[in-house]
Each structure stands twice: as C-alpha cells, then as structure tokens.
Design goal:
- 18% of the residues lie in helices and 58% in strands.
- The chain contains one helix and ten strands.
- The protein has a ten-stranded antiparallel sheet with strand order 1-2-3-4-5-6-7-8-9-10, with no helix packed on it.
- It has two domains: 36 residues; 144 residues, lipopolysaccharide transport protein A fold (Sandwich), CATH 2.60.450.
- The protein is α+β, with helices and mostly antiparallel strands.
C-alpha cells in the first residue's frame, strides 16, 4: 500500500504541473490573439508587416533640441522596408528657438517617413502661427532636413491686416520667410477669408 500511495502522490504532482503548464500555454495564446484583434492589448495591434497604435505622441529631436511633435488618434507603421508611418487626425507642433511651439499644423491624414523624418499632412490642412496668422491648403510636405514646408497646391494665408492666396508655397520656418510661386493675390486690410 505504501508503494501505491507514493505513485498516486507522484501522479497528482505530475497532473498539477501539467495542468499549470497547460494554463500558461493557453494564457500565452490568448494574449497573442488579443494583441492581433483590432483594439489590441494596450491599444497596440501587431500583424504581418505593420503595427497599429491608438493615440500617438511622437517627438523628433534635431541636434538634441525638440524640432517637432506629432499627436495622432491612430498610427499604422508599415514594414521597415517601407519606413512609412500613417497617421490619422494629425496635430503637429513645430518648435521655435525658445523651445515653445511656433506653429501648429492640423490635418485629417499624415505620413511620417521613419528614416528622413519628413512629414506629409493632407485633408483640410491648417497651419497656425503663434502670432495669429494662419495658412489653409489641402496638402503640405514638411522637410525636416531643411526645416521647411512645401505646399504644391492652392494656399490661403490670413494675417491680422492682410489676406494672400496663391499656389506653390515654400515656407522657410526658422527664417519666417514664405514664397508663393504663382497666381498670387494680395489684399491689405484683411477680412476676405
């Protein structure tokens, strides 16, 4: 009887260990499944070739200084071969020399190149200057290396005492100089937009 009791105790211990291992494996696969569903664990979803994340705050530093910060309601990062991060409901702050936001850019969609750090914003784009002027267009490109904004299409610019419209904007942010290349209309005194 002593030998049988020892065998039963060993069998119980083996059954307990196997049961715990089964639960751990089951928990692991449930977590993997939860990550792969749309909302995901911690708002993170991983799938073949891309990552999806909800509520994003992305900061880019240039020479140790905060150059811009992007907020977005969602992010899709495609494989490292493409290096493209897709953003939705974008709000970007471009910082000036005083380490405070000099410009606020909003738009419905965005694309961030993870290597060059260039940003494309499209869909109802508005650029607001801290001094009160604003620019409206459909599409802009922010070139991080040159710290400039390029808007190839039609652009409306409104200041306190002027309204300007035209196409083909190049805006040098640090120098606070903008160039409109064609179809330029200028109205002094404001009030048109």
């Amino acid at each position: 009887m002593g030998f049988k009791a020892i065998n039963q105790q060993i069998l119980r211990k083996i059954a307990l260990v196997l049961g715990i291992m089964f639960l751990l494996v089951l928990a692991f696969f449930l977590i993997l499944h939860y990550i792969n569903i749309k909302k995901g664990l911690l708002n993170l979803s991983i799938s073949k070739g891309y990552i999806t994340l909800k509520t994003v705050d992305y900061k880019f530093f240039k020479n140790g200084v905060l150059a811009y910060e992007i907020f977005s309601k969602s992010l899709n990062y495609y494989s490292p071969k493409r290096n493209i991060i897709k953003l939705e409901d974008v709000k970007a702050y471009i910082y000036g020399k005083n380490k405070k936001p000099a410009y606020i850019i909003t738009g419905r969609h965005g694309r961030l190149n993870a290597v060059s750090k260039n940003v494309t914003v499209s869909g109802g784009v508005i650029i607001k200057d801290i001094n009160g002027s604003s620019m409206k267009t459909k599409l802009i490109y922010y070139v991080a290396k040159d710290d400039k904004i390029v808007a190839p299409g039609y652009m409306e610019i409104k200041g306190k005492n002027y309204d300007i419209s035209g196409s083909g904007l190049i805006f040098y942010i640090k120098k606070r100089i903008f160039i409109l290349n064609k179809d330029v209309h200028f109205i002094s005194g404001g009030g048109r937009m």
